[in-house]
Amino acid sequence: MLGFIVRRTLWAIPTLAFVSFISFVIIQLPPGDFVTAYVAQLRNGGEYVTEIEEAMMRAQYGLNDPLLVQYWRWISAIIFHGDFGRSLEWNAPVSDLIWDRLALTLIISTLSMVFTWIIAIPVGVYSATRQYSFFDYIFTIFGFLGKGIPDFLLALILMWVAFIWMNLDVGGLISPQFEGKPWDTAKIINMLSHIWIPLVVLATGGAAGLIRVMRANMLDELRKPYVETAYAQGFSERTVVWRYPVRVALNPFISTVGWALPALFSGDVITAVVLNLPTTGPLLLQALKMQDMYLAGSFILILSVFTVIGTLVSDILLAWSDPRIRYS
Amino acid sequence: MTLEATAAPVEPETASREEDLYTAKPWTLIWWRFRKHKLAVASLIFMIVLGIMAIFADFISPYTPFSFSKLNTFAPPSVVRVIHDGSLHRPFIYAVKRKRDPETARVLYEEDKTKVLPIEFFVKGQDYKFLGLVPTQMHLFGVSDRKQQINLLGTDSLGRDLFTRLLYGARVTLSAGLIGVAFSFVLGLALGSIAGYYGGWWDSGIQRLMEFIRSVPTIPLWMGLAAALPVAWDPLFVYVLITIILSLIGWTHLARVVRGRFLSLRTEDYVLASRLCGASEYRIVTKHMLPAMTSYIIAAMTLAVPEMILGETALSFLGLGLRPPVVSWGVLLQDAQNLRSISLAPWLLSPGIAVVLVVLAFNFLGDGLRDAADPYGH
């Protein structure tokens, strides 16, 4: 087991290096660089900057060096000093801007993952044990719809429905009147009345797919002889189903945690833009539009690192729960 | 994954039918199996109809996508009726009157129940070039009135007909999906076949690459790449680049299918036989192995289309993908970005419904094809 963990962790290191390189390439992609944008900003402010000064600045920041040298400077600052560079638009260090938002993204994604599982496991088990029943068909339709509706459209529709029928303004995470106030019961209730929409939106897409997976796995398992044996020994249906086939059918669930994370982060980014949540989404979008590339690159880097770690954890969990993987 | 297709491929009703089953060609068997999946057949018909409507969008739509009218902004969808004054009438719409709410100054439209505008077919309307070649004024349907319009899906903030724009947008969105899949097909086929055929180091290298791409959150990565495209570039060029960006990430599923098929076919007897006969590797791959997996590849490609369409829609919706004046479903949905415009004009969400329908249709179609892909399976 320990050997597996070490091997798997070592594998993650080249992946992380590659992810960080891609993020850096994205920072470099747009025409012009940090100095071009900075000088343009200065000139807009009425300052006079000569070409020579511009070239000197470029040399000072080391922008004439080869790409790999620049990459090394960027990544070593991040690894050794936690310095992600400066956001041009906000005129502040990137690390001051991102951690709050990343934490919130992580919280919402984790919550919706838990929510997804709470929906998907019982529904999948029900659909499999009552195959072709009325509710099985209902859940099948729900599954296909959940796969087909884009996240942002679902967010828009829910927001509209909440506004028309419940007269709730559900944009943002808390209502303006609670902004900056200390946390008390009223504020928490207010936040709960906002947070359900992103959770529902994110969970629907994931749950739709997982219900199908769970149902298919359960159907395979239920046909196996050991289930028959368990019934023959006189266990109740509940005991048989939940004790044996469900535990086997959950295996692919654990292995897809790693893939569910990137989907959740993607979904969170776009849902947050629609709902105006203070997570990574709106800031990332704005940073990309303004070509505030250090901010955008850091976001992409950290979100990707989260996913690599998530995949790592899910692989280790899978190996822990299924000895066949550990020893292969 | 199917509802109906689990049944036996063909019920042997008569002896001759059964004989047909044994002598039928693979593609006939695939078709018979596919036919059993009712939802997939319905989806196929829906997609064919939509495809034809998109190709002939300029003829079918009553207006042109950029013709605006200041006096027809945010007009609700026209209701097509057949009963006027209690008696049956040919399909018509009532004329609408534009009013303002005296308190909020909001524009309202009211039907004038006395003025009947029959829907006419093959009417003269705005100039356009049929399929970009033949200049003409003929539109499939419309109303002949100088001031009134027929807006099956309402109008947007500039008074442009949403039905017209939806049809023109279908051209861009659907073709972006298909072109994106074509690109990822090339990538997926090349890398998947190398991985599956040669195995060993090639296989584990390509496997790692695929795993890596799948572990990166797609939307932020797409956003990053799409944002790097300069705003000033030609919209058509941007369109091609966006599809390439989408396929750079989307090829992995296809490659996985191809790799899996290659792995299982590599050990088949007939491949060994052709190798013993001295066939070159190129010949073995193209003449013997690829034809055996065509049906699987088609199914996988069908299932990859909705991903491309959703990607294009999401990027354009965020303002990072295609930009006006290009009309795509994602661009149209930009108008429906905030609560205010949706509550004022809910019909602006109709491109979203179109997206959902198309994505569902491709999913059903792909499911049906995947079940039919192996006609000897059951």
TrEMBL record, chain A:
<keyword id="KW-0472">Membrane</keyword>
<dbReference type="GO" id="GO:0055085">
    <property type="term" value="P:transmembrane transport"/>
</dbReference>
<dbReference type="Pfam" id="PF19300">
    <property type="entry name" value="BPD_transp_1_N"/>
</dbReference>
<dbReference type="GO" id="GO:0005886">
    <property type="term" value="C:plasma membrane"/>
</dbReference>
<dbReference type="InterPro" id="IPR045621">
    <property type="entry name" value="BPD_transp_1_N"/>
</dbReference>
<feature type="domain" description="ABC transmembrane type-1">
    <location>
        <begin position="102"/>
        <end position="318"/>
    </location>
</feature>
<feature type="transmembrane region" description="Helical">
    <location>
        <begin position="102"/>
        <end position="125"/>
    </location>
</feature>
<dbReference type="InterPro" id="IPR000515">
    <property type="entry name" value="MetI-like"/>
</dbReference>
<feature type="transmembrane region" description="Helical">
    <location>
        <begin position="137"/>
        <end position="166"/>
    </location>
</feature>
<keyword id="KW-0812">Transmembrane</keyword>
<comment type="similarity">
    <text>Belongs to the binding-protein-dependent transport system permease family.</text>
</comment>
<keyword id="KW-1133">Transmembrane helix</keyword>
<keyword id="KW-0813">Transport</keyword>
<feature type="transmembrane region" description="Helical">
    <location>
        <begin position="9"/>
        <end position="29"/>
    </location>
</feature>
<dbReference type="InterPro" id="IPR035906">
    <property type="entry name" value="MetI-like_sf"/>
</dbReference>
<feature type="transmembrane region" description="Helical">
    <location>
        <begin position="195"/>
        <end position="214"/>
    </location>
</feature>
<feature type="transmembrane region" description="Helical">
    <location>
        <begin position="253"/>
        <end position="275"/>
    </location>
</feature>
<feature type="transmembrane region" description="Helical">
    <location>
        <begin position="295"/>
        <end position="320"/>
    </location>
</feature>
<protein>
    <submittedName>
        <fullName>Peptide/nickel transport system permease protein</fullName>
    </submittedName>
</protein>
<dbReference type="Pfam" id="PF00528">
    <property type="entry name" value="BPD_transp_1"/>
</dbReference>
<keyword id="KW-1003">Cell membrane</keyword>
Automatic annotation (TrEMBL), chain B:
<keyword id="KW-0472">Membrane</keyword>
<dbReference type="Pfam" id="PF12911">
    <property type="entry name" value="OppC_N"/>
</dbReference>
<dbReference type="InterPro" id="IPR025966">
    <property type="entry name" value="OppC_N"/>
</dbReference>
<protein>
    <submittedName>
        <fullName>Peptide/nickel transport system permease protein</fullName>
    </submittedName>
</protein>
<dbReference type="Pfam" id="PF00528">
    <property type="entry name" value="BPD_transp_1"/>
</dbReference>
<dbReference type="GO" id="GO:0005886">
    <property type="term" value="C:plasma membrane"/>
</dbReference>
<comment type="similarity">
    <text>Belongs to the binding-protein-dependent transport system permease family.</text>
</comment>
<keyword id="KW-1133">Transmembrane helix</keyword>
<keyword id="KW-0813">Transport</keyword>
<feature type="domain" description="ABC transmembrane type-1">
    <location>
        <begin position="170"/>
        <end position="366"/>
    </location>
</feature>
<feature type="transmembrane region" description="Helical">
    <location>
        <begin position="296"/>
        <end position="322"/>
    </location>
</feature>
<feature type="transmembrane region" description="Helical">
    <location>
        <begin position="212"/>
        <end position="231"/>
    </location>
</feature>
<dbReference type="InterPro" id="IPR000515">
    <property type="entry name" value="MetI-like"/>
</dbReference>
<dbReference type="GO" id="GO:0055085">
    <property type="term" value="P:transmembrane transport"/>
</dbReference>
<feature type="transmembrane region" description="Helical">
    <location>
        <begin position="237"/>
        <end position="258"/>
    </location>
</feature>
<feature type="transmembrane region" description="Helical">
    <location>
        <begin position="39"/>
        <end position="60"/>
    </location>
</feature>
<dbReference type="InterPro" id="IPR035906">
    <property type="entry name" value="MetI-like_sf"/>
</dbReference>
<keyword id="KW-0812">Transmembrane</keyword>
<feature type="transmembrane region" description="Helical">
    <location>
        <begin position="176"/>
        <end position="200"/>
    </location>
</feature>
<feature type="transmembrane region" description="Helical">
    <location>
        <begin position="342"/>
        <end position="365"/>
    </location>
</feature>
